[in-house]
Amino acid sequence: MLLSIESSCDDSSLALTDIASAKLVFHHKISQDSAHSVYGGVVPEIASRLHTKGLPEILAILKGELGDFTRLKAVAITTEPGLSVSLIEGLMMAKLLALSLRIPLIAINHLIGHFYSLFINQCEAIFPMSVLLVSGGHTQIMQARSEEEFLIIAQSLDDSFGESFDKVAKMLSLGYPGGPIIESYASKLSPTTRIHSLPLPLKDKHGFSFSGLKNATRLLIESLSSHDPSKVDSRLKVDSSLNESDKALVCASFQKAAIAHISNQVEKYLKHKNNDGIRDFAIVGGASSNASLRAEIERLCTRFGLRLHLAPLEFCADNAAMIGRAAIPEWQKGIFADSIAQEVSPRSTTNYLHTL
Ligand code: KG4
Ligand code: ZN
Predict the structure, then answer these.
(1) Helix or strand (DSSP H, E) at 40
(2) What pTM does this model have?
(3) Which domains does the chain have, with CATH numbers?
(4) How many Å lie between the centroid of ligand 1 and the Cα of residue 145?
(5) Which of 73, 104, 295, 350 is deepest in the core (most CB within 10 A)?
(6) DSSP string, 78-122
(7) How far apart are the CA of 158 and the centre of ligand 2, in A?
(8) What does pLDDT average to in each consecutive run of 10 residues of the chain (356 residues)?
């Protein structure tokens, strides 16, 4: 069995995967959402401190279930990209386990890990596949061409899709993570209410951008606000005291524009060179749980005759199960990291941004 550890941001997670069958045997995750919620985003120092508590707690639960660690054949760890103060906590634990148990260390790229969230409990992964990765740190179109080749075809020039949801939620003082909260507020909007149409970025270009949309949303909040200075949050410089129906209006208007932007850019990619002939398409990452985004991409896939693949909802956000699944091909090929080296690098994605 293979032990995997994920601590790249604000989730402490450990998983155990049976190498031969790819079956997930154990998975446990401690989310730090409530600790970061008051700040409207992840505070790296708090995340790091909570990993030092959370990771050993989960290891103790695992030890209670296994009795001892003699059945472990390798330890897989997310080494990049992510918050360095968070990554280091998981890496320390992984190195110590690998060294003390005398088993190999496998370094995993977090973005490739998200791709493998599609194949947890499955022996065979599908290649080639076009992948829309939407998370708090990234918004990318990637081509998973083989186990060895992951090409990044388009990416965000500024904020990511998930991050823009987090920031809009922060402007409205709705808490963190913003994605599910904004989605839920948007769904409360009465169907008869006309939503505001916000300007869509990069109309004639490829890639993604969310900073302009974020600003347009800020202006919309201001236009709906009471202009009572006592209600303006001095830190955020916005009036976060909108009534519930105006909050729903802002959330629905923002979400519609953010998804329309993703949809326009994915459509351009699919039209370009006929998607390089790839017939399979997936959405992965924390924000891939958004039902309206799923529906929009499903519509595009039907139009272009593509098969759509989605990860189970429980594995969309960061988790160690996807890291364990991503480590199986590395184990099979004997691609191991040096447990005593200071820098540990995983198989990387390749930038292919010039192809669009
Ligand atoms: O993949 P993930 O767990 O962490 C990173 O690798 O960044 O993604 C977390 C991000 C957060 O920004 C969160 O607000 C966003 O995913 N998210 C959503 C939804 N659920 C989570 N964004 C939009 N709609 C959602 N339903
Ligand atoms: Zn992630």
Answers:
(1) none
(2) 0.94
(3) 2-120+314-347 (3.30.420.40), 133-144+148-310 (3.30.420.40)
(4) 25
(5) 104
(6) EEESS-HHHHHHHHHHHHHHHHHHT--EEEEEHHHHHHHGGGTT-
(7) 17
(8) 97 98 98 91 95 97 95 97 96 97 97 98 97 97 96 96 97 94 96 93 95 96 79 57 93 98 97 85 98 98 97 98 98 94 83 71
